[in-house]
Amino acid sequence: MTCDEVKPLLNARLDDEIDPIRRAALDSHVDSCSSCATELDKLQSVRDAIRGQLPYNKAPLDLRNQIRQALRGAEYLDNGAHRTSWRLWGTVAASFAFCALAATPFLVNAHNQRQLLAEELLSAHERALIGRSVDVISSDQHTVKPWFNGKLPFSPPVTDLAPDGFPLEGGRVDYAGARPVAALVYGRRLHKIDVFIWPSAGEKAPPPRFARNGYNEISWEKDNFLFTAVSDLNDAELVAFVDLLRNR
Ligand SMILES: [Zn+2]
Description:
The chain is an alpha+beta fold. The chain has 9 helices and 7 strands; from the N terminus they run αααααααβαββββββα. The chain has helices spanning about 5, 10-15, 20-30, 35-55, 60-80, 80-100, 110-130, 140-145, 235-245; strands at about 135, 170-175, 180-190, 190-200, 210, 215-220, 225-230. Strands 1-2-3-4-7-6-5 form a 7-stranded antiparallel β-sheet, with helices on both faces.
């Protein structure tokens, strides 16, 4: 196995979620690779710190349902591509780790909390790309907005940007920063843009710009809501999209 294959599996390795054959290959790589061994040590010490210093909380029902649904999506995809489910496990494990960390004011400072929130939103976007991406499929903002009634403790602003080349495709309830958030899904050619929305009162905002693994994230605050747009769309088009949305 190569480092690129091993690193995404380290979380799953710590959780003993890897089949024996792959585990043996992974372990023998880690034994001979100081970079992967260091990474594994780091993950282990973060875990130990969290286990040792934090009260353990049961995952909220929303989050559990969401992971269950994401896994169902992976089973479906797994017929053709086995790698997908490992990627998904990696994402799920990472998002658990981030949830735990985001709730850890004693371990991480405010700056890190903002970064972690940005990571979590990106993970939510990746999960949606692997499994389901919309719960209500509609290009009509007057259908999508009332759909959130009763599913969220707030009513997110919903805007269609079809005339500007960014059609609204639907929405879903997602979970980030230890709270439910609205996710609006927009399309641009073959790309998806998720816009996460939640009330800003008393909340930490993610950093205005964030990028990882070819994904771009832009966050802003408007009318007492925080917004984060995430996509693999090129930066110029994502900026144009955000400008349109901000100015509605
Ligand atoms: Zn390695």
